[in-house]
Specification:
Blueprint lengths: L1 H12 L8 H18 L6 H4 L1 E5 L3 H15 L4 H4 L2 E5 L1 H15 L6 H4 L3 H9 L11 H19 L1 H12 L4 H14 L2 H4 L2 H12 L18 E14 L11 E9 L3 E4 L4 E3 L10 H8 L14 H10 L5 E4 L11 H10 L8 E6 L9 H5 L4 E6 L9 H14 L1 E4 L6 H4 L13 E8 L9 E8 L10 H9 L4 H20 L15 H22 L7 H11 L1
Parallel strand pairs: 1-2, 1-9, 2-3, 9-12
Antiparallel strand pairs: 3-4, 3-8, 4-5, 5-6, 7-8, 10-11, 11-12
């Protein structure tokens, strides 16, 4: 009886007919990207020389390293030549900064040259402790964080706290108390009371400071790389055999949720337009924050602890959101305690009006999957995830998912195996190279059938101390007029060297450290620049290279 009632409610609130299938989505998306290619002076076919960049998760560690790499690669005009910029979690901080900057300055002919200007880099450096409201007053900022935690807890249970207070202090009937509780439970959304709002404010202040209110759908009118912002939808132990609106059967824990300018993509419910009534006001800041929402009551395939989930719900310590179901017919109010109860019991699913969405790293932390789905010919993937023992867990996870779900085979040969090329030597602690190359091919009869691509897998690693840019520092010093400025530059360089030398876990320091010191930020940023320079030198990239020439140079190197 309950099962039939649930199916009846689903038919009332959800509309599978409102969605589009993957084929329709890709056709519209290719039209948009071809328009961008033409605007940037490229007339070749997308399926011949498409280029995608993937920025992994890893919080500020990833955003800082990716910033350095992209700044270096942009010297060969890489952003103008890139068709897709896919990101997840910390990599999304920098990706969204790029998307926003290129959109705001879309009529500026020099936007690709100025996106990594000294002033922009300095702002990002100054924002290295973005979770502090007032970085110059650390104790006050810490107090604000503590107060935010307390308010998040209180507001989340306000619908229960107020009726209890009224019951204890005043002689009020049970019916009135029930009505008050019901109204509060509808009006007070956990998306507002949780840490998500604080997190979104902090990130937008740091990375979208020049325009925090850009709507995701407006980026469809931009000329930069097409944004693919990856998140995760949680469907913990949900049995899909009872549903006719999903594309597979069996029990799973999570699936892919993608923010893009044209479509909000959820594989289990097909895809809907980003400007649909339920998503038309979704901002780039919201997408960036959700993609990086690591603290969630559901954490994908790794964390399934009932106790941890219960504590996060009770204390309201979560950064994910309850998103409208893409198939929702009407953007109606929700009874939020119902979803709180489902979180505690681990019963999130995709057949309710709201769905649990959090960090894309909870399912795939390299942001490569969606590029494989689009059969991109050349993929540059930056893996800045925490991996001190170089176990390549995120890469292994991707390889398995790509083969099982798409039929895409990612193959490294012996000379390009990450475990031998990138994993540090046990004697000196240095890697042979920062990157290795894999072929991508599709299994006959699968979704990826006919796919023929190249993956350049780039890993946060150290080759040798000489790779750090002392020559660049000397050039900078020569351009400085005063002795005081010279001394300041030398001091910064010394601090960076000290950090690299006396920090054993560099460059894989814990993800829990989101409050970088100046020397820590400089060390990761400069390592990123160095990795970018190594890539350019190894592939002999040139600013005048066409898309096809970039593809061919990578193939020749392989």
């Amino acid at each position: 009886m309950l099962k039939k009632f649930t199916q009846f409610i689903n038919r009332l609130i959800l509309s599978p007919e409102a969605s589009v299938n993957l084929g329709e989505l890709l056709v519209k998306e290719k039209e948009e990207i071809n328009s961008r290619r033409n605007a940037n002076g490229f007339s070749t076919k997308l399926n011949e020389d498409s280029i995608g960049i993937a920025l992994s998760g890893g919080g500020i560690r990833s955003s800082t390293l990716c910033l350095g790499i992209l700044k270096s690669l942009n010297e060969i005009d890489i952003l103008r030549k890139t068709d897709y910029l896919s990101s997840v979690s910390g990599g999304g901080y920098i990706a969204c900064f790029i998307h926003a900057y290129l959109h705001v300055h879309q009529h500026d002919l020099n936007k690709y040259e100025t996106v990594f200007s000294d002033s922009n880099i300095q702002h990002l450096r100054d924002s290295r402790q973005h979770l502090y409201v007032l970085p110059q007053y650390k104790w006050l900022s810490r107090m604000i964080i503590v107060i935010t935690f307390i308010l998040a807890f209180l507001f989340n249970w306000l619908w229960l706290i107020i009726p209890v207070i009224l019951f204890v202090r005043f002689d009020i009937s049970g019916i009135i108390l029930f009505v008050i509780a019901a109204l509060l439970s509808i009006l007070i959304s956990p998306n507002f009371t949780s840490l998500h709002s604080y997190y979104k404010y902090s990130l937008s202040k740091a990375y979208l400071w020049f325009n925090r209110k850009i709507k995701l759908s407006t980026l469809a009118k931009s000329t930069g790389p097409y944004p693919l912002i990856n998140a995760t939808i949680h469907v913990n132990q949900d049995d899909y055999d009872s549903s006719n609106i999903v594309s597979y059967r069996g029990k799973i824990n999570s699936n892919y949720f993608l923010y893009s300018p044209l479509y909000i993509v959820i594989q289990v419910t097909k895809f809907v337009n980003s400007d649909k009534h339920t998503f038309k006001n979704t901002t780039l800041a919201r997408a960036m924050t959700t993609s990086g929402a690591a603290l969630s009551t559901f954490m994908g395939y790794e964390h399934k602890s009932f106790l941890l989930r219960w504590l996060l719900v009770l204390l309201n310590v979560r950064t994910g959101i309850l998103s409208p179901n893409p198939l929702l017919k009407y953007n109606s109010p929700a009874l939020w305690p119902y979803y709180t109860a489902k979180e505690i019991l681990g019963k999130a699913n995709t057949t309710t009006a709201r769905v649990q969405v959090s960090d894309g790293g909870h399912i795939e932390n390299l942001a490569i999957y969606e590029l494989l789905r689009r059969k991109v010919k050349l993929i540059f993937a930056i893996d800045a995830g925490q991996d001190p023992n170089f176990e390549f867990r995120d890469l292994k996870n991707l390889i398995i998912r790509a083969q099982n779900e798409l039929g895409a085979i990612i193959s490294f040969d012996e000379a390009n195996n990450p475990s031998t090329v990138i994993k540090p030597n046990l004697i000196n602690g240095n890697s042979t190279n920062h990157f290795c190359i894999a072929t991508i091919s599709g299994i006959k009869g699968s979704y990826a059938a006919g796919y023929d691509g190249i993956l350049v897998y780039i890993k946060s690693s150290i080759l040798h101390k000489k790779e750090f840019k002392l020559i660049k520092l000397k050039r900078q010093i020569q351009q400085i007029d005063t002795k005081a400025d010279v001394e300041e530059s030398l001091k910064r360089e010394l601090n960076k060297v000290m950090h690299r030398t006396y920090t054993p876990d560099f460059p894989h320091q814990s993800i829990t450290n989101q409050f970088f010191t100046s020397e820590q930020w400089d060390a990761y940023y400069e390592l990123g620049e160095s990795i970018g320079d190594v890539l350019k030198d190894n592939f002999n990239f040139d600013k005048n290279d066409s898309k096809s020439e970039l593809n061919n140079k990578v193939k020749l190197r392989f």
